[in-house]
Amino acid sequence: MLRQFCRLYLQPAPDDSTLIRWAGFIEPDTLEQLNEHVVKLARQLRVTRGRKLRTDPTVVETNISYPRDSGLLRDGVRVISRVITRAKELVGTSIQNARTVFRNRTSSAKRLARQIADEARRRGQEAEAGRRATYQRLLKITEATLKQAETVQVLLQEGLAEESAAAVRRLQESLDQFVPLVKQVVTQTRRRVLEGEMVPATEKLVSIFEPHTQIIRRGKGYKQTEFGRKVSLDEVDGGIVSRYRVLEGNPTDDREAPASLANHQRVFARPPNLFAGDRGVYSAENEVAAPQIGVKQVVLPQPGHKTKERKSHERQSWFRRGMRFRAGIEGRINVLK
Predict the structure, then answer these.
(1) Most buried residue, 229, 233, 260, 319, by CB count within 10 Å?
(2) CA separation for the pair 137, 191 (Å, rounded)
(3) In angstroms, how far is CA 187 from the centroid of its own chain?
(4) What span, in angstroms and rounded, lies between the C-alpha atoms of 178 and 168?
């Protein structure tokens, strides 16, 4: 029923799965070129003149469950066991120790992961000792599954036939993708759970399906920790997104301001009259550097304690108008998400 109302110029909208498949064909470089073309058309049609620039970073969360070592180990065993089961049809069961090589350990991994979740609700040294022992059993199951995967990889290479070459290649690619990730999960689980080591966020893997996901803490009261990628967005007057960048890690917001201004000068051949950002974008260096390249109004509210002179500066009418302009990017971010 809903699809009857989803029309594009009186034509039916493509199915969701079709749109997702099409989106997968667009490489990042192509998407960036498309966005630059849109900005160029907006300039030609005078939708924007690039007189104002506002910037704001945000976090785009990936669609993953809350990352726990037990869940990651369970997922790793499940995915690799599924590939091994598919390989069984191509390799055959006539090999030596076929029952061990093609054994599916998914049920055992799921049971132990549930047991760890139950033990995590208990308190005390006895519960902690039991949880560690269960983790050791889950790790043994995961490592056994990894050994099976390595054996299957060798068998697939030896038994490559012309009629099944494409299927074998797909299985090898799956194992090449997931085996290193599961090994990383095993390593970080041993370090964190068994050895009691604090593993840095930059070294943690939080999803084997979305391995690019990063741990980001921005100090937001409603959500202390987010899992995804940090994205910096620039928007000019006219509601045109002139630049976006997917950032590595969790850099401070003020580091992207020089790149935003440099990109604006490249695209519009001149600096903006007004440059606005939130408290995170503020830094003494940014407030000094922007006027040096020709920005007339720098609207970056200072965080923390403010002197009397600073308060007076931020109460000026042009500064307040700039703050109202800056607030509009929040709505743009919600629409994009």
Answers:
(1) 260
(2) 15
(3) 22
(4) 16
Compute CA 172 distance to the chain's CA centroid, rounded to the nearest angstrom.
26
Q: What b/e sequence results for 278-287 when a residue is b if at least 16 CB atoms lie within 10 Å of its CB, and e otherwise?
A: bebbbbeebb
Residue with tokens 């959500």: 223
Strand ranges (E), 39-119: 52-61
Distances (CA, A) of 240 to 1, 29, 257, 298, 320: 34, 19, 18, 20, 22
Q: Give pLDDT tens digits for 204-239.
A: 999 999 999 999 988 776 778 899 999 999 999 999
Give Rg (Cα) of the chain. 27
| Tokens 């503020």, residue located | 282
Q: Report the 10 Å Cβ neighbour count for 223.
A: 12
Closest CA relative to residue 116, chosen from 141, 144, 82, 143 = 141
pLDDT tens, residue by residue, 156-205: 887 654 557 788 889 999 999 999 999 999 999 999 999 999 999 889 99
Q: Which amino acid is it at 25?
A: F
**Residue reference for tokens 């990730």:** 181
| Helical packing angle, 125-158 and 69-91, nearest 10° | 30
First to last CA, the chain: 25
* Contact yes or no for 146/183 (Cβ under 8 A): yes
Strands (DSSP E) along the chain, which ranges? 7-8, 11-12, 52-61, 214-217, 225-236, 240-246, 274-276, 297-299
Burial string for 8-27 (b: 16+ CB within 10 Å, else e) reads eeeeeeeeeeeeeeeeeeee
Residue 139, number of CB atoms within 10 A of its CB: 19
Q: Partners of 246 in the beta sheet?
A: 231
Name the helix (H) or strand (E) containing 309: helix 308-314
